Amino acid sequence: MEELKEIKAGSKHMNSMYIYCFLTFALGLLGLRFGAGLFIGIGVLALVATFWHKNTPIIKILDNNLEAKLAPIASKHFIKYSSISNIQKEKRKVIINYNNGAKDKKLSIPLRLIDEDVMKKFLDTVQERRKSVA
Amino acid sequence: MINTKMKIALLIHIALIFLISTDPERGFLAFIPGVVALLNVVGIALILSKQKKTGAWIFLVSSAILVPIGMIGAIGARQILDEEKKNKFYNEQ
């Protein structure tokens, strides 16, 4: 089985982003007297986010730690496998609780962002690494 | 220290001041990109004077006022914050 090194946004998420971009630009360009600029503005933001997700991995899995940045302006998380306290799987997201120095932090990954099989593989990999460093 | 995105963003914000100020009816609105550009300069000055985190935050928040065009500067400032975080994380190891 191929080892997971980096994770990009899933195809479902990308498809919905394409539709979102198209709809916002279409509504903006339809010539609505009010709100046209707003729709085009949101469309530009969606377009930037779409290109970013297309070209940049959201999670990098390294030997001792993982790096996660879920959106272009979102803060980057650096997580040591040994600092992960627990992983919760909820209905719409996966929450990784970890300790960064003196602070308890959490990384919340929306399930729609990553394909289901990749997410399962990712969680298995993280659990495996956690056990190996423990 | 200062990345290309931040330089481009500052130039765009300055260009916006001139572009808006030439409008005879809404020229007074040029004060909005004016304030943003001023805060951008403050942010850059702080980054250059080794207060990277504060400077990058000022640049990020001020650029976010002009979203969507301000997104370029916000992404650039976020890159600096991420680099700082990365250096701190790997130096602790």
Strand content of chain B: under 5%
What is the strand arrangement across the widest sheet of chain A?
1-2-3-4
Would you tell me the structural class of the helices and strands of chain B?
Answer: mainly alpha
| Proportion of residues in extended strands of chain A | 25-35%
How far apart are the first and last residues' alpha carbons of chain A, in Å? 24 Å
Please trace the helix and strand order of chain A, writing H or E for each element: EHHEEEEEEH
- The outline of chain A comes out as elongated
Structural class of chain A: alpha+beta
| Gyration radius of chain A, rounded | 18 Å
Instruction: Give start-end ranges of low-pLDDT stretches of chain A.
Output: none
> Radius of gyration of chain B in whole Å, from Cα?
15 Å
Count of extended strands of chain A:
7
Order of helices and strands of chain B: HHHH
**Largest interface by residue count?**
A-B, 17 and 15 residues
Give the class-level CATH name of the largest domain in chain A: Mainly Beta
The whole-number mean of residue pLDDT values of chain B reads 90
- Please give the domain count of chain B: 1
Question: Gap between N and C termini of chain B, in Å?
Answer: 24 Å
With helices defined by DSSP (H or I, 4 residues minimum), what is the helix count of chain A? 3
